[in-house]
Design the sequence.
């Protein structure tokens, strides 16, 4: 997916300024359902949570006869054989998005991380039932992807479920406007040069992808960082990981659930998903084990501890049947999950947890994806057997 960087803070509740950009682009249950997914609009609009409509703040024709854009166009002509006059005409119609420029700025006040609030937003009955509906509607495709890429259906469903929710809040910007703005007019921040380079690459890939797919780039809607479609892929991820999975000879992440399913599975496989392996292990609740977890948690998603190191220090696991000796070399991440007013929760993330953080680096995001998928799977199994999931 997409977010190797994350201007949007996925570890905190929606910030008021960003919650104001709610776009009515997904079905009521929160999962994509065929052609209702990403309606096209020439006049980007959004709504506050209270339903008040407003238009995105833009400045038309800012990039016509712009020296930096001229240099970019010349580079695209030289490297990708674009038609110069067509690109000049295109950028003359691109608008500066003041809204996107504001939203990539860090929050002026630190946001308190709240795992329980974040979890409750995704692991709840409406989302779970929507996931069951999506799974049943796309069961054959999910099974095919699981067999081809080694990624379980519940993981794919979890990612699409979480990304659909974010797409609802962030998905009504013209991707070309947002990416052009952040390529040439990124706000003055310490990481400005690095971010502008990243957005420039995504702007390049947006133009290449839409040209090769015969899509008018001005019709493509996305987040304020240019993430597009059901799985919220940035253009560079579309170019690198997206696949035609419905067999119609084109890739359409905006309205094709099959292409989204195949592309998510391919993304995870290419980033190292290990078929048949766990995502997390539970840590025992005793004081000693929790203290070791607290000491070992450093917030980095990359696995750095082995199970042997943690158990030698005295950590116990709440995983009946786990062969501790056989799994001793397994690399792990100690995942911390703070909630104000509560003791911080901890779990152990395996390689597949790390792969989920490649989609988005947030621990909250990765665990919500996993838990939503597991909850949907449990509901599916319960409905098939006529029992009630606990």
Sequence:
């Amino acid at each position: 997916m997409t977010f190797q960087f994350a201007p949007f803070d996925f570890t905190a509740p929606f910030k008021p300024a960003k919650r104001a950009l709610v776009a009515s682009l997904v079905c009521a249950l929160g999962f994509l359902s065929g052609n209702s997914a990403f309606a096209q609009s020439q006049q980007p609009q959004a709504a506050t949570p209270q339903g008040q409509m407003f238009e995105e703040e833009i400045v038309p024709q800012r990039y016509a006869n712009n020296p930096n854009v001229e240099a970019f166009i010349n580079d695209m002509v030289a490297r990708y054989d674009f038609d110069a006059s067509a690109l000049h005409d295109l950028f003359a119609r691109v608008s500066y998005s003041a809204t996107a420029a504001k939203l990539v700025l860090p929050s002026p006040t630190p946001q308190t991380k709240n795992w329980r609030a974040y979890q409750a937003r995704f692991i709840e009955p409406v989302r779970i039932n929507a996931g069951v509906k999506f799974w049943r509607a796309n069961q054959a495709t999910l099974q095919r992807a699981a067999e081809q890429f080694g990624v379980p259906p519940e993981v794919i469903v979890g990612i699409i479920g979480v990304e659909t929710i974010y797409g609802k809040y962030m998905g009504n910007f013209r991707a070309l406007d947002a990416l052009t703005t952040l390529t040439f007019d990124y706000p003055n921040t310490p990481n400005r040069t690095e971010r502008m380079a990243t957005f420039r690459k995504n702007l390049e890939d947006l133009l290449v992808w839409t040209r090769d797919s015969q899509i008018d780039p001005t019709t493509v809607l996305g987040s304020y960082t240019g993430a597009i479609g059901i799985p919220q892929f940035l253009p560079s991820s579309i170019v690198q990981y997206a696949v035609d999975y419905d067999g119609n000879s084109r890739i359409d992440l905006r309205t094709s659930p099959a292409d989204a399913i195949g592309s998510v599975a391919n993304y995870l496989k290419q980033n190292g998903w290990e078929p048949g392996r766990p995502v997390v292990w539970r840590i025992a609740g005793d004081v000693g084990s929790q203290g070791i977890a607290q000491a070992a948690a450093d917030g980095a998603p990359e696995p750095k501890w082995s199970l042997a190191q943690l158990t030698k220090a005295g950590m116990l696991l709440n995983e009946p049947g786990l062969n501790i000796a056989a799994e001793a070399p397994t690399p792990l991440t100690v995942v911390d999950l703070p909630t104000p007013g509560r003791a911080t929760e901890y779990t152990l993330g395996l390689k597949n947890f790390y792969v989920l953080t490649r989609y988005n680096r947030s621990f909250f995001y990765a665990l919500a994806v996993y838990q939503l998928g597991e909850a949907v799977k449990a509901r599916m199994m319960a409905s098939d057997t006529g029992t009630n999931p606990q």
The two ends are 32 Å apart (CA to CA). The longest strand covers residues 331-337.
